[in-house]
Design brief:
Helices cover 49% and strands 20% of the residues. It is α+β, with helices and mostly antiparallel strands and 188 residues long. Strands 1-2-3-5-4 form a five-stranded mixed barrel. Helix 4 crosses helix 6.
Amino acid sequence: MIGSIKGAIILKTEKFLIVETNGVGYKINVSPDTLSKVKKTGEEITLWTHTHVREDVLDLYGFLARKELELFEMLINVSGIGPRGALSILGITSIETLKKAIGTGDTSYLTKVSGIGKKTAEKIIIELRDKIGGEEGEGTLRGELDTLEALKSLGYSQSEAREALKKVSTDTNINTKIREALKILSGK
């Protein structure tokens, strides 16, 4: 089992990186958050990895943060959620916000992921709520959802709005979040 990889990035695509270590290039599927933090090829990187083995597949999944790997591993242990689905779930927002959504039982937040229906979202919440812990913060989560909807009503796509919200401070009220997100979005 490969627990981590440290090496130089020799290829960066939309879904994976190839990291060369001691002359061997490893294809590592990465989350959108990890991919956005990688700047260029030739950069040295250390990734926490999960080795996924099936009878016909041997895949590596890599993450910059250990807490992202831990949530990924929790998600793939939910029946019906595979590694690609777990990466899609991790790509919707920050780890903290996902944990709050699961902890507060907010299925509507999880169903925004393509391929995740209400039953699957409920299954994720039932199986992971105790592991993650029912966190307080429903107001914060609701504020983020309201901010997301406001940005969408202003004509931004859901993915653009989510990317902007990842960069906005979580401690602020909805109006401030919208202003900060609009500044980020207009800077594109």
